[in-house]
Write a structure and sequence with these properties.
Layout: E1 7-12, E2 16-21, H1 33-40, E3 42-47, E4 51-57, H2 59-69, H3 75-85, H4 96-102, E5 107-117, E6 123-126, H5 128-140, E7 156-169, E8 172-183, E9 192-199, E10 202-203, E11 210-220, E12 226-237, E13 246-251, E14 254-260, E15 271-288, E16 292-304, E17 310-313, E18 320-323, E19 327-332, E20 336-339
Helix pairs in contact: 1-2, 3-4
Length: 341
């Protein structure tokens, strides 16, 4: 959804451009939810070559205006709209409880970046335009087939890290933090991977953490006709056990989810088409008003070996390291700074 940009504020180092779009409080008749959002939500955008950071404020005023002008809309629908509007993924991937909670947020900050694994196994952040060019080459160039002949056996991954201001009690500010990892090309080998997010604040053990893993594959014939699609979805709240997802808590400064990547095989004469593969984790932290904290999302893919990936967080949540006896690929998002209100 296109946001209007009112004023260019400044240009900072590493060729990052920060822009701000300020909401106009003037109400109009017969507004849609999109028009109310564009009018009231203030958006600050920091764009660099290898990441984009967007902050959305004045959300409470937006929610109040929506409820007043569109009384038939539910809190879950408002939360779902905010998930899409702020670029956090698809609301269909989340539970109703989480969508309702999203409608209670005061501010939302979303950082998006793309990570590439090179042929030698090293990873680095790259621009969205580079990923777009690679994807176009993959799908439109007949010589690049099958997909496994790409430079990297894993391809590119998109990681979205968010923090959302939920409430304040005294000097305590409560933030919901999340990491969403999306494969832009499915890995060849699929075992048990780990998605995690660390923090330098205080982990809130009174909150029910949440994680999910989703993937979709199709079978198609030589003419490109899809005749079978299988969608696999698994989710878990931390107070439940009916899931193949395992929560991991190496310290109070980090939480992770071990997810079970599954292989999909088509019958004779058909090839596998990758649709999507993504993993997500969400929990709450407590920050002291006026202080600064960091969060960092990461993903580890087990490529070859026996056993499960584990991870640890250094003292104070300053770094993440993964443990695995075999060969693995590590994808680290850039740390995101929280300035507690």
């Amino acid at each position: 959804m296109k946001k209007s940009v009112k004023k260019i504020m400044t240009v900072v180092l590493c060729i990052c451009i920060i822009t701000v779009g300020s909401g106009n409080a003037y109400a109009q008749s017969s507004e849609t939810i999109e028009e109310i959002a564009d009018r009231l939500i203030t958006v600050s955008i920091e764009e660099c070559d290898d990441y984009t950071n967007k902050s959305y404020k004045n959300i409470s005023a937006f929610v109040s205006a929506v409820k007043e002008q569109l009384p038939d809309i539910s809190d879950a629908e408002i939360g779902g709209f905010l998930i899409e509007y702020t670029g956090q993924g698809s609301p269909e991937d989340l539970t109703e409880e989480i969508l309702v909670e999203t409608a209670e947020f005061k501010e939302i900050t979303v950082q998006e970046e793309f990570i590439k694994e090179s042929a030698d196994g090293t990873t680095s952040t790259v621009s969205k335009s580079e990923v777009s060019r690679a994807m176009i080459a993959e799908f439109n160039t007949p010589s690049i087939s099958p997909k496994a002949t790409w430079t990297s056996s894993d391809g590119y991954m998109k990681i979205t890290t968010t923090y959302s201001f939920w409430s304040n009690t005294g000097t305590n500010d409560y933030y919901i933090i999340t990491t969403l990892a999306e494969w832009l090309k499915a890995p060849v080998n699929r075992f048990k991977d780990v998605i995690c997010i660390s923090n330098t604040a205080t982990y809130d053990d009174s909150y029910t953490d949440y994680a999910y893993y989703k993937q979709s594959f199709s079978c198609y014939n030589s003419s490109g006709t899809v005749h079978l699609t299988e969608n696999i979805s698994d989710e878990r709240f931390s107070d439940q056990s009916n899931s193949k997802i395992d929560f991991i808590y190496p310290s109070v400064n980090g939480a992770g989810a071990r997810v079970d990547l599954r292989t999909f095989v088509c019958g004779s004469g058909h090839s596998v088409k990758y649709n999507y593969m993504k993993a997500f984790i969400r929990y709450r932290i407590i920050c002291k008003s006026g202080n600064t904290y960091n969060i960092q999302g990461a993903y580890c893919h087990a490529k070859v070996g026996i056993g499960s990936v584990g991870f640890s967080v250094s003292t104070g949540g300053a770094g993440i390291s993964f443990s695995f006896a075999g060969t693995k690929s590590e994808y680290f998002a850039k740390p995101v700074t929280i300035d507690a209100v």
